Structures are given as structure tokens and as C-alpha cells.
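Hi R.,

Here are the chain sequences for the assembly we discussed:
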Amino acid sequence: MVMKLIELIGKYFIFLRRVLSRPEKGKIYYQQTVHEIMSLGVNSIGIVIIISIFMGAVITLQTRYNLENPLIPLYLIGLTARDSMLLEFSSTIVGLILAGKVGSNIASEIGHMRITEQIDALEIIGVNSASYLVLPKIIATIIFNPILTLISMIVGIFGGWAVSVLTGALSSSDYIYGIQYWFVPFYITYSLIKTVFFAFIITTVPAFFGYNVRGGALEVGRSSTKGVVTSSVLILLFNYILTQLLLSK
Amino acid sequence: MIRVENLFKSFNGEPVLEDISINFDEGKTNLIIGMSGSGKTVLMKSIVGLIKVDSGKIFYHDRDFVCMNIKQKRELRREMGMLFQGSALFDSLTVEENIRFPLDMFTNMTPKEKSERVNYCLHHVNLDNENQLHPAELSGGMKKRVAIARAIVQNPKYLFCDEPNSGLDPITALVIDKLISDITHEFNMTTIVNTHDMNSVMEIGEKVVFIHQGKKDWEGTNEDVLNSDAKNLNDFVFASSLAKKYKEKM
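And here is the predicted structure of the full complex:
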């Protein structure tokens, strides 16, 4: 079991070395990266907006529900919603959701290419297939996922405001005062740093499982599941490690 | 010319190729024949380096392929073209983009030059004006022809075809066979074709190698196939009762 895990990690790093080697033709890789930004990044804006707006709304409602003490000022609900979105939800939860959406897409796309010999065809043409297929995806997600995270922060905080006003949970002025109160700009930097690590995990781990698939459609499905589960676990692990490194005093 | 010497390959300790030595002639259509599971595809994938061999040597005009590093192998592969069993066309690209792909990656040709080259290759495989179709819109035979066009777009010295007739009707299969043979002679390529289709053997097999249970069992021309006394080869070639009767009358 342990030996298998070590072997798997070793294979993953060998795969990464191939992925991160010098591209054959920069222009083609650039075009691929632009395509991947559209496919993996821009196409994820919708789901990120929907999820973030509800996350912001639920955080606000739950905090209001739990704040029964009249001594605690209501503007703290805005502060809680803001910090929850900035510190955790916009990076980690959105990262987990993208691991499902983008990760399964990558694993099944590359896995399908493997079983239909398209990857072999790339190799015969003389192309470094691992780099050609995966490097543009890594660059695209590393560029675009921080933008998704920023969108999530803005929309999530807006969701909290909207639900406050619509349900009367707290006044608009209390909420706006709360989201401005004791603002720590480093929280955004911290969140964006995490997002870059998560983007790397979300692309490389499912790509690794898809690239090494053997068999047929069933195995492609399994590799997709393995890719999503493993990348989700790694996101949580790295979330802990990065939090320890960046926020501990 | 491609020369294979004492090739061994096993999977999980189970030998798949044992002591295979073959010379594949330049400018000829060389056929590897054998039953399903005999090791034909493993042999071909070993020759092109998609499968790492356990031991043995593979020479491309005296260049030792096995000893090359990955970069050298990739450079040599630019002299190869390969037609895969399932065609292996890139789903997301059109016919034109599929064929143009090697040119985009490795040449500095202008878009006009690339377009002319693509049209030249498409014309060779009788697919004029099908440039903008996607693989999903093509029939099995058309996919094979597009794959051949992609394989020859860089003027390869070596052409590999893995089961080019699988899934095709006999007439289309003959068209593909003739195409492979014509291209081989026109461009003086060393062509290796994996097949278990006897029509292909009789039609284009200038040199035929019979693989049986991972070993080279017989070697000759398409004319020799019918007159051979090799038991395993005869069992394979004259498998049906009708063919057996024909053989007995010979």
C-alpha cells in the first residue's frame, strides 16, 4: 500500500517533469493557452457566481441566526461574511467545486485521448504529448483562477448584502459598515496565493490520472473520479499547510 | 530500411515478443501478419518506441533507436508517419487542422504553403474539398484516408499502419491497401503494415512476416504464402474449410 503510494507519487513527478519541459513551438502553446482560458476559466464564471452568491447569503443568514446577544453589534455579521469569503470560501470551496468541474473535464478529455490512441498519435508526430496537453491548462488556470476567486469574493459579499436587505436580517448600512470594518488586505493576497496552488493541483492531478489510463470507457470514468477525489483531498491538505505557513503567528 | 534484432518484450513476466529479428525493406510494403494476440501491435509499437522493449535493437538506417534519448527519438519520429487502428484523429480539429497539425508544430511554412500541402495530401487520398469536416462527420474509410494524409504530410521516410482495414468493408479495405502501396512506391518509404486480412497480404504484401505466439515463424513474399509448407502459417492462411479444400487441391 505504502510502496504503491510512493510509486504513484514518483510517477506523478516524472509526469510533471515531462509537462514542464520546454515547449516545441511557443506560438501553438500560446494559442492553446488562450483556448484553455476560455474553456476552463471563462466557462466557469457562471457556476462560480451562482455558488458564491448563495454562499455569501447563507453565511450572512447563519451568522445572524446565531447572534442572539444584544451586546454584539450587528455590523459584525458583515465582517464575518467578508472574512469567511476572503479567507476560505472564495478560494477553498470554489477550488473544490472547480476540482469537480474542471478536474473531471480534464481527466476524461485526456483519458479519452489516451484510449483512442490520440496521445500515441501526438508522440509519433514528434510532440511531447504531456506538455502539449497539460501545460496550457496549467497556465490557463493559474492565470484565470485568481480572477474567479476575486469574482467569488465580490459576488459572495454582494450575496450577503442582498439577503440582509431582502430578508431584513440587518440593515444595509450595518452590513456595509461591517464589510469595511477592520479590513486586512493581506487576506486577499493569502487567498490568491492559495488559489494558484489549487489551480496547479486541479489541472495536474486529474491530467495525470487521465494520461495514464489503460482500458476503455469504464477506466476513463474511474480515472476521472480518482482525479477529482485526489485533487479535492490535496486541496484540503494544501489549504491547511498554506494557512499554517501564511497566517500563523 | 528498418532492422530489428533479437527483440524481447514481456508484460508482468509473460513474454509477448521473443527473439524477433526482421529486416524491413526500403521502398516496399512490409506486412506483419498473425492471429489476434500474436504480438503484432506490440511489435509495431515497440519499433516506433511507444512501448519500451526489454532487450534487442532497432535500427533506422543504422541509427540505433533503442539507445536514443527522448529528444533524439522525437526528432527521428518526425521522419515517421503512422496510421492507427482507430485512425486516432484529433476530435476537436477539422480534417484540414488534423493534417496541418504536424506542419504547424514543426515547420515555418506560410499559411498558404501549408494549405497547399494539405490539399495535395487530401487529393492523394481522394478527399478533395472535405477540409472543414470534423472526424465525427466522417465514415470509417474516410477517417482512415484522413489519417493517411496526416501520416504523409511531412514526407516521412517510414510509414506504419496498424490494422488499416479493421472495421472496413472489403471494397474500401482494398482502396486503403492500394493507397498505402501507391504512397509507399511514390515516396520510396519503408512501410510496415500490421494485418490479419489475407486480401491485404495478397494485394500489397511485397514482404510478409508471420508472427506466431510472439515469435517470428515465417518470412517471404505474398506469392510464397500460398505455397509454403509452414504449418502455423497454413493454419492461419487456410483457416476456413473452403480455403483448406483449396489448399488440398493445390
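Chain A has nine helices and no strands. Chain A has one domain: 29-247.

Let me know if anything looks off.

Best,
T.
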